[in-house]
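Aim 2 progress. For Dipeptide ABC transporter ATP-binding protein, the working sequence is reproduced below.
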Amino acid sequence: MDTVKPLLRVSNFCIQVAADGPLAVDHLNFDMAPGEIVALVGESGSGKTMAARAVIGLLPPPMRVASGRIEFQGSDLCSLSYEQMRQVRGSKIGMVFQEPMVSLNPTLTIGQQMAEGMRLHTDLDDKTIVARSLEMLRRIGIDDPQRCLNAFPHEFSGGMRQRIMLASVMLLRPKLLIADEPTTALDTLAQADVIELMLELTREEGTAILFISHDLSLVVRHAHKVVVMRSGKAIESGPTQQILLGPKADYTRQLLEALPTRGHLDSAPVAKPLVDIRNVTIDHPGRQGFLFRGKPKRAVDGVSLQIAAGETLALVGGSGSGKTTLGRSVVGLVNPVAGEIFFDGIDILKSANREHRLQCQMIFQDPVSSLDPRARISQILAEPLRHVPGLTPEQRAERVRTILHDVGLSPVFAERFPHQLSGGQRQRVAIGRALIRHPKLVIADEPISALDMTIQKQILELFERLQKQYGFACLFISHDLAAVERIAHRVAVMQQGRLVEIGSTAQVFDHPQHAFTHRLLAAANPLVRQDDGSYQLRSSAAS
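Predicted structure tokens for this construct:
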């Protein structure tokens, strides 16, 4: 591909924070040929997204282009007027963002949003626009495209919304697609589907893809070239296999060292079940209108499982499989329509005593949403202690200092607000809040999916250390199979509300029994670190 004239060339490109601020992107250089996939990788704050946004002319203030060129099809995008860039954006360069729920308008139907770009950039009539929209929705695997056109974004799962966003962008057949962490919030199967759609469009339309990701497994499998970024600078770049399987730069090796090492935890010691879920069935209410009431949707269908004291049980499956709903039922946030849930020997569905809720704590996926933005960290951590009898203010303050130390944060963080912390630091606070009352069970719902790979490693190491220190059991809900393999004693696999397989981590990963488990493992196929320090794509048992 090196002999082909570049579609995109970025030369000595710099982005500055305001007129007199530091450089967010510092003399970046790379080029892309038609149909080529180039990945930008690095930790949060490395400048990946800023560089990509500059290509499409969407730099947020106070960011500004300081110097350099971005040549697209021979024209310098930095010299184009706003109106000229508006004509390029969408028609020739498209962008898919990390969270489609943010980029899709919640007040407009899918059909209205898909039509916007075609009305702006083409002379097609409404009938042709609808026909093309229906055809594109069929191509991306939407079973009922007509219903989809008339539906709103909130009616779809995360994976379906990301497909719809990709369809909207690809309707105009852009020459360059910028994909900013397009699979981070998706389960393993949805990730594979979205990536395959992108690859299919590349093959059929010759579209080049600028792929921004912290998932090195995806990058090594699909990208032709990779640019490793740190603090706005390109540390290393070149063919993907050369860079990621034989890195030269220390920073690249540091990123790769965050990958999981092949292996499984030993089985947890045999202990009395702390949680005993028996034939639990949970329904979500159906859609309701002024003159109608829809049928309830079954979210969990007759699931039975146990969690022993001190054990980590991982719950995996596709989006909408019922994982989170089942976890919420244990802490009393969702009421089953049938079945029994015993916690420490007490049937929590029949008991009027809510003491068990103090012994169950949740860690949510996004600490930005789950931490009060108006409260200081000390107040957030102390809140669960408010109703502990006999605890003086001095004792509460001491407990806060202790938990800050245990989660690896210095005392100065006590007076800060959540927005002053990084993503990893906020997740440490969320873990501390969950553990400050020394619960017997922690339910961790996708606790690392919003973090980059090095921070993921730090949080997993912290979680493992704290579990040994505090002795809590854990229901670990995740679509990250590499993390599950590292942290879980046992794994339970859910599909469409049902439990299809459960066993030790080694058994499920190395000798899966159910066809759906095979599919999950085949879709993941992660890049793993070998005992000798080398890196390779692991072939799953499903292959």
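The chain has a mean pLDDT of 89. This observation will guide construct design in the next reporting period.
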